[in-house]
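Blinded run. Sample ID left blank on purpose so nobody reads anything into the name before looking at the predicted structure. Input follows.
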Amino acid sequence: MRSTSTLARIIGIANVLVVVVAVVGLLVIPGEPEAPRRPAASAPPATPEPTATEPARPPGIVATPESAREVKANELGKIPVLMYHRIVKKRRASIDRTPGQFRKELEKLARQGYVPISAREFATGDIPVPPGKFPVVLTFDDGHPSHFGLDAQGNVKPDTAVAIILETAAKYPDFRPVATFWINHTPFGLQTEAEQAAAVRWLTANGFEVANHTWGHPNLRALPAKSVREHIARLERLLVRLGAGPAKTMALPYGSMPRQKKTARKGEWKGTRYDFDGVFLAGAEPSVSPYAKKFDRGAIQRIQSNDKKGECRKWCSQYWLEWLNKNPGERYVSDGDPRRISIPSRLRGKIGSKRGLKVNAYQP
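Blinded prediction complete.
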């Protein structure tokens, strides 16, 4: 068990890594458009509407103590919530990943039995993962163009994060093509709200989550509570206009918590309310299960995607994925039934929120 001071130091290190390439926190909020901007009359035809293809969920099964024992289910185990920023051919900062590095990490996850879920599914405790498999949450900050884009024919641009996720899912059938994209006021580098809405509609229709990373990406700890609420609420308004709101999750810019912690999760500004099921940090270890007593939905841990180099020798994705493989008893293992919580009987007293779900406690 790490001491509070040690954990604070770890999280501080992770946040410093994030700040390296992030834009300096804006104390003056960029202006919110009064109305959605539309392309000029001479603009090319709008991107074709996407074909909705909801990511597969496991076949409906009813988990029992016997079936849970068979797969060694432990739904109080730890879950890796992986944090990505830019996916670029030439890394310009330590938190960048190349398409090759990202592809390699996803294939490693798929081979080891990890199944992606969204941040929303995780925070709400709706974990549609087959029995004996392990959930992983893929999250992307800032809505960078390297995350997603469509070409003139409406196809996903190659080597973007979404393209690589879809490619991996096609190769490994159990690997759900699911991820969460936390955006600011210019998602995916698109300048008009018509373009932004087309992108967001495609993502949400195909099972991806698009959610709140604040309007201007400031250091929320440096702002008064009213400005914190304004940054969050303005982005909520944009998400609603684009067809993805109201959001159910939010990632803190720089992983920096407001001085009044509750304003990050719930608040109101000029008639716009927000109430998140989960608020996510920037580091630095796997999250506890959403069913655990220690789960804090207002400060959910994430892991930076990176190799074991420098500060990441111990606190980034390669280290933690290896650690979970070496300590399988600490990892979340699904029973295949999102309506039940299956655990070894010795852990029954550690359940914090049943959320109306039945508990399967079994003797190993």
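Unblinding after everyone has recorded impressions. Residues 1-30, 33-52 have pLDDT under 50 and may be disordered.
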